[in-house]
Amino acid sequence: MTRLLRATAFCTGAIVLLAGVAGAEEATLVRDAQPNATIVLPEGTSDAVKASAEALRKSIKESFGVEIPVVVESAKPAGALIRVGERSLAVCPAGDNLASIEAHAELVCEKVHRSTIHGWHSNRLLRYGGTMYACATLPIAPGEKDWDAKGVFLRREADGKWSQAGDFPHQPYLMCAGPDGRFWVLGSTSFLNLHVYRMKNPLDFGSFEELYTGTNAYMGAGISPEGNLLVLHAENYVEKALSPNAVIAAFYDNRTNKWRLNRLDTPEGRNGYEGIILRGNRGLAVLNSTINDPAHAAGGTYSWRHVRLARCEDLSEGLEIKPGKREPGAPRPWSKNQLSAGKWTNVRWLMPADGRTALQDFVVAPDGYAYLSYAHVSAESDEAMKKMAETPHYVARIHEDLTTDIYPTGLKASATRLIIDDKGKWYILGRPAAGGNLRLWAVSPERAFAPVKEYVINNTEKLEAYVIHLLCPARFGGESDGNTIHILSSRVPKDAVGKELDYAELWYAEFNLPNT
Questions:
Q1: Which residue in 173, 253, 249, 170 sits closest to 210, CA to CA?
Q2: Nearest-CA neighbor of 99 among 385, 356, 458, 455?
């Protein structure tokens, strides 16, 4: 099998230019498990550039098992060349010189569960019919366990105040809107199940019925413009690293009212936290590991370092099951032997021996490509990992064949979201390393997603959870609001002596993009 890696940039602190034999914009680095390129350094380069070249060489080896040679320019290498040199990017102003954008912020709910905002791939904010909707998990009562928590739906009224639109029997984790106004909601009552509900009637929050019961709470979902739904969830709860697991792909066809199931092997262990883009019966997914691996968790227990890319050209091929709820203790309506990968292509992408990965956003751009915002660093051992203080931020362009163009942005930010305005201008919204108000960076895809201007978004300091939700109709349905950006997140308040309380506040903000 031929494995391709397209990269115009890879390493923080250096700029990487990839050229083919005749100066092509992309080239094959690895072909049939053999090196097909050379990393080239300028004469007398700095130690930082040498370190970047070495990091690139290691990353290619970890991903493809092939050593790419590193030489200096005077060696006059032939073939595909990866030129590594000093980075030259526009410098964003700092401190008090930042441009500012005023946001309007408001409290949505005074008390929600502290875990309400969780998971880069989840969604708790929708706009439908010009009205904003949110969902949250309520705090538990004394003596209850976290899995006993219930959910609530909230609606923003015409006067700008939020009111309760309905309730939910479980913790709502992800919410989608069908084109007919019937919302889907996914939630769980333990790590061993997944409940998928849909409204019987449009915008009727009292009419939810369960249409599918999955086998694990680690999951993701996406909806298509036609109202089809794709749910991906782990096959089982086995979480130990390198214990073979799988992802179950459950596709709901809105026209036929039927589910089709496929199975994707994940031999490195359990995967959850899936980002999904669904168009008709074609799906694209990013699969993120969630494995118990203390030996490779930089002092922690769990690791999310591994990432797979998967694509299916026809989700309608698979084991057919009828919609409906599976009662507790009842056998599942399928067995492992009945499921196959169908039309899925499932490939390894980020598979370091050790490392950190934080997926943050997944969008479709006007050019038709999917783009992923993420932070990642790899290492050869846990000890080496502990010495790496920073986790660089990247943007990846994903091709039809699941190869990628990888761009380091140089941003020191978390909770990032990718935004494209109505004129095709790109922005990255996120939280700076120092915390406080959110920042908005205008970036240039033509210059490898280099940041060209930075804005501080005033009045957003209370949206401090590690995830911020924006409207994303391409993945979760509902409506966008043009160049007006809507944000949902939470904060944990503190008492008079600075101790965190046992609940969170749910906050909402909105602002207009620059020059709109």
A1: 170
A2: 455
For residue 134, give the nearest of 117, 115, 159, 114 by alpha carbon: 117
pLDDT in tens, 166-224: 999 999 999 999 999 999 999 999 989 999 999 999 999 999 999 999 999 999 999 99
Amino acid at the residue 492: V
Encode pLDDT of 328-355 as tens digits: 778 788 888 899 999 999 999 999 989 9
Lookup: tokens for 419: 């935004």
What would the two tokens of residue 148 be? 């006993």
Continuous H helices in 33-154: 47-64
**CA nearest neighbour of 503 among 204, 121, 137:** 137
Q: Return the DSSP state at 296.
A: G
Q: Region of 129 please: left (phi>0), alpha (psi -120 to 50) or beta.
A: left
Domains of the chain: 14-86 (no CATH), 95-512 (2.130.10.10)
User: Minimal CA–CA distance to 512: which of 474, 457, 452, 430?
Assistant: 457
User: 376 phi and psi, to 5 degrees?
Assistant: -160, 140
Residue 351, SS3 per DSSP: coil
φ, ψ of residue 114 to 5 degrees: the values are: -60, -20
Going across the sheet that includes 194-199, the strands are 171-177, 183-188, 194-199, 208-214
Q: Cβ atoms within 10 A of the Cβ of 137, count?
A: 26
d(CA 463, CA 429): 13
What is the residue whose two structure tokens read 């990487």? 16
Quick check: helix, strand or coil at residue 148?
helix
Note the helical H segments in 5-89: 47-64
